[in-house]
């Protein structure tokens, strides 16, 4: 038997043993801040790029077209209040646990929902919004589709580990512009796509992710064409010559420095205030520059 004849069965055997289910911890979580309007803004910023469906105008999920094909077909979850198809059965504690650790109420690992460094007030406002009567989170039985991982995708997912639930207070650095920018880069997950690879991200300390913000991560555009994420570091191959205004236009309107349209899967963040986009830009000027091919 040559190596080709056992490679696929071997991969399937390995993948079948990959762990993507974890025990959950039941926690008591009291929502202190309940600013629903701010919660909606934050939910669009933090969750919208994956979970908001612009056709149905709600958080019922969609297919993530930019996912590399070797991973499989990936669909984001319905996070409306439907108790069966959505997140209606989640308690505030289960929502907090999911967002802080990446583990759902059923124990399933959802690593890209992992926001271990989110401030308490932002977390509270998001939970308050998800439990509100806003039309975008009202119960929807719609399912975007069933995620089907390939053996390679399942293996890759199993290599990502859930975070530890840290039961201490986290405050948003509102007074320090650069640190606010760092906070936003973390919680908007800019570093997910704009670092070297999804496989080498460090959610607890994003700056330790391989190729942090230097781009090069392999994605797909709307037509399925392979592309690499741009460099966001202060290098000539990145945003060294950009202005604050050019950066804001890019991330809120989708127009690049050279007036070209920024392609999918880059989401737009029109909900960002000028102070917030300026803080992100200020922080990006402080990260180590990385040289990338244009």
UniProtKB/TrEMBL annotation:
It holds the Pfam family Cytochrom_C. Residues 34-134, 176-288 form the Cytochrome c domain. Keywords: Heme, Iron, Metal-binding. The keyword GTP-binding does not apply. This is Cytochrome c. It comes from Dyadobacter chenhuakuii. The keyword Heme applies. It comes from the Bacteria. InterPro entries: Cyt_c-like_dom (IPR009056), Cyt_c-like_dom_sf (IPR036909), Cytochrome_c-type_DH (IPR051459). PROSITE patterns: CYTC, PROKAR_LIPOPROTEIN. Gene3D superfamilies: Cytochrome c-like domain.
